[in-house]
């Protein structure tokens, strides 16, 4: 091999902390195996279904579509309008009414999934604030630090949770806000924190947003689970708190989870500028960044979302479907806590204070390996469990297995 070959000086890259585990699960030949690793919703039968509203929207799109022409760099205007309304809906208002500041100060960019939106947000920090560092509360979605480092930015870590992994570590958070330089960015999870399920209260969001604005830090909200916590509007309390301060914010949202459009890769970046002109200027740089990364986004997922949200009947149906997914996840969470107690694993009732798909069971690497080897149960580091992957038949089996590795 020549000294200049790409492969000349390398060893294998590590496997992805989440999708690497899914690969191990796929390779497992045992018939009764449990994938509680990747954050995907499964029904009682272990299937990740296509939502009925999505099926109906797709059949409408199929009969009405006439072209596969490129979209603008910023994406599909109909999807962007729909995504903007979903994010910034006025509390108590009719569909279509959005916070007035949002209509003036927000520019939207259509991205391949929430990951594309986070990547674009980080790229904007690197382009517009050279030398800035990006702060993340640990533990966080492991891809956050991977994305920051691939943009050649320094990731600064602070604690998000207390040592017992049960609640928000407010003092570590406010210390980090005080330590960050003006112009640094800080990533927050808009709702349903991944992997801990530990979210600030609406009052805490207001205080966090005010401190962030006061210190001149750029907040990046990763908002991948809207509707899976308490409700579509309730979950946007974080966003409303930042909007109210007047500071600039980047909001990465995803349609993967709440529309179950995982493989369509559809999301958006909302750019909230200090004013309309600032948002337009930032968006012009975002379009430059997009042109060099994916040029313009894939169309189909955005067409599904705008078809659903643009039709009052389909939209109401979809809101019911999101509500049903949320209620089922909450039910599985409660049933798991009860089953863990019955199995003698201990008191996990603190999990009932958490939101969304995930929580940490606090398991060691050895315990996770035993769960995989002895019970064919796949979880992510620290025992991140996907509550949305449980079912009434799986819950007692998983609880017994966890009890046995904790014993
Ligand atoms: C997860 O955290 O499991 C999901 O968000 C899937 C992903 O992209 O990592």
What does it look like?
Helices cover 44% and strands 12% of the residues. The longest helix has 31 residues. The strands form 3 sheets. A 7-stranded mixed sheet has the order 2-8-7-6-5-3-4, sandwiched between helices. A two-stranded parallel sheet has the order 1-10. It folds into 2 domains: 111 residues, Alpha-Beta Complex (Aspartate Aminotransferase, domain 1); 259 residues, Aspartate Aminotransferase, domain 2. The N and C termini lie far apart (52 Å). By secondary structure, the chain is of the alpha/beta class. Helix 5 packs across helix 6, helix 5 crosses helix 10 and helix 12 packs across helix 14. Helix 8 links the parallel strand 5 and strand 6. The model has no long low-confidence stretch (mean pLDDT 96). The chain is globular and about 60 Å long. Bound molecules: (2S)-2-hydroxybutanedioic acid (LMR). (2S)-2-hydroxybutanedioic acid binds next to loops.
Salient structural properties:
seven-stranded mixed sheet; Aspartate Aminotransferase, domain 2; two-stranded parallel sheet; Aspartate Aminotransferase, domain 1; alpha/beta; 407 residues; binds (2S)-2-hydroxybutanedioic acid; globular; 14 helices
